[in-house]
Design brief:
Layout (H helix, E strand, L loop, with lengths): L1 E5 L3 H12 L3 E5 L3 H8 L10 H10 L3 E4 L2 H5 L4 E4 L14 H13 L4 E5 L7 H15 L7 E5 L9 H6 L4 E5 L2 H11 L9 E4 L1 H32 L3 H9 L20 H14 L5 H13 L2 H9 L8 E5 L14 H11 L3 E5 L4 H8 L4 E2 L3 H5 L4 E4 L11 H7 L4 E4 L6 H6 L3 E3 L5
Parallel strand pairs: 1-2, 1-4, 2-3, 4-5, 5-6, 7-8, 9-10, 9-12, 10-11, 12-13, 13-14
Antiparallel strand pairs: 6-7
The structure holds nicotinamide-adenine-dinucleotide (NAD).
Length: 439
């Protein structure tokens, strides 16, 4: 089987490498020349556990190829996956220009039957737009008899566990219009699901909708728990206990009930905005989802507010250590990360920031430039700090040496955005502790 995966980012590179691992001949295509040249030399453009060895093994085995030239490989393929970015426009609409560029290239160069699969997260109806755009152009080119199908195959991998998620998915959602598309997608995914075939076939519109509904559900759970956490603080309850009590109900379950300093990343925020916008375009107001977004925007301010209230609005001139810049652990992705909201507020209030992250320093530099000090490790970040704030729960932050920290910090204050520390333990080292949703 020969496929092309267009867009070699978090989704495209992981998908391409995982398909190749199952024996598929995969060509990963990107417009970013530097990225493609780097990949050919073994350079992995993103931090994702397990990805480097997977890419290297399959590249060396000749099953994984990289190119910037889609037209030159297109007519050697049975399927083309579109996995380019779909960022938010200013009004929240998903910007489909990257998807359309790829569709136009296919339309202009396709000479053999193809199945074009949308893997990017796209608003409901986009796969049909791709279908109509390509069909029209094929007809203009006099290729009226050329078979051309579309399918929707939204991706559910999580950054930080992307390879594992792709290799052992909970389920694979596929929207199709034809038996031919269904057969090809079944062949492609069967190796991943040999013991329990969990591909859910459906119509294309429902498949596209499933992706947004899933992300909206997860974001709702997070914002819901943040709302509960904020009330816990006010009434004197402990959200850690409440979460355990709530999550033990098998109808509810434990996952995505962790309160914190808001969700970020390249998916939830933009997908929530796009869903709200799609609803508006259809004359419908998504009230629950709008509240989820509003709650998240508020929660992203919470770490700064806790610091501000501790210092009675006198943050100017304070040195603040920030542990964690990525939007979650095990990734270098800082897009819409709560750490960025925090750091911007700190800098505007006149504080100096000393930040450390195990993987995301380089990415963060694109957003923050030289406005902060990039520390060498957690202790370097905390040196002389008036407060330590933890927006991201990387494993290496979980058991620091509090004795050392108590000596090197100027003020023993910890604001824990992910509830990873124990108040009593910190108190025994003389630290003032502020968590989320706790007294
Ligand atoms: N990152 C995730 O965790 C995740 C999870 C599920 C779904 N998604 C969705 O998958 C899609 C891709 O996300 P991502 O995080 O991989 O994006 P990304 O920004 O990491 O990668 C996109 C890639 O597409 C390339 N590209 C842009 N235009 C191109 C073109 N015309 N031809 C070839 N390549 C082109 C870019 O250079 C970039 O390398 C988005 O719709 C996103 O919402 C992402």
């Amino acid at each position: 089987m020969k496929i092309a995966v267009v867009g070699t980012g978090y989704v495209g590179l992981v998908s391409g490498a995982c398909f190749a691992e199952m024996g598929v001949d995969v060509t990963c295509v990107d417009i970013d020349q530097e990225k493609i040249e780097g990949l050919k030399k073994g350079g992995i453009p993103i931090y994702e556990p397990g990805l480097k060895s997977l890419v290297t093994r399959n590249y060396e085995a000749g099953r994984l190829h990289f190119t910037t030239d889609l037209p030159s490989v297109l007519n050697d393929m049975q399927m083309v996956f579109i996995s380019v970015g779909t960022p938010s426009d200013d009004d929240g609409t998903a910007d489909l220009s990257q998807v359309e560029t790829v569709a136009n290239t296919i339309a202009d160069h396709m000479m053999v039957p193809l199945l074009v699969v949308t893997k990017s997260t796209v608003p409901v109806g986009t796969s049909f737009r791709v279908r109509d755009l390509v069909r029209k152009r094929l007809d203009e080119r006099g290729l009226n008899d050329l078979t051309f199908d579309v399918a929707s195959n939204p991706e559910f991998l999580k950054e930080g566990a992307a390879v594992n998620d792709f290799m052992s998915p909970d389920r694979v959602v596929v929207g199709v219009e034809t038996e031919h598309a269904k057969e090809l997608m079944t062949r492609l995914y069967r190796p991943f699901l040999l013991n329990n075939f969990r591909v859910i076939f459906m119509d294309i519109l429902s498949s596209e909708m499933t992706k947004y509904a899933s992300n909206a559900m997860l974001a709702t759970r997070i914002s819901f728990m943040n709302d509960i956490a904020n009330l816990c603080e006010r009434v004197g309850a402990d959200v850690n206990m409440v979460r355990r009590g709530v999550g033990s109900d098998s109808r509810i379950g434990r996952s995505f009930l962790y309160p914190g300093c808001g969700y970020g990343g390249s998916c939830f925020p933009k997908d929530i905005r796009a869903l709200i916008k799609t609803a508006e375009d259809f004359g419908y107001e998504m009230r629950v989802i709008k509240a989820v977004e509003e709650e998240n925007d508020r929660q992203k301010e919470i770490l700064f507010e806790k610091l501000n209230s501790h210092f009675d609005d006198a943050i100017k001139g304070k040195n603040v250590a920030v542990w964690g810049l990525s939007f979650k652990p095990e990734t270098d992705d800082v897009r819409e990360a709560p750490s960025l909201t925090l750091i911007h507020s700190l800098l505007s209030a006149g504080a100096a920031v000393r930040a450390y992250d195990p993987a995301a320093m380089e990415e963060a530099r694109h957003y923050l430039g030289d406005s902060i000090y990039y520390a060498n490790d957690i202790y370097d970040a905390a040196d002389g700090a008036d407060a330590l704030i933890v927006p991201t729960e990387w494993k290496e932050f979980r058991l620091p040496n509090w004795s050392i920290l108590s000596k090197i910090m100027n003020t023993r204050l910890v604001i824990d955005g992910r509830n990873i520390y124990n108040r009593e333990e910190l108190a025994s080292h003389g630290f003032d502790y502020r968590g989320i949703g706790q007294k």
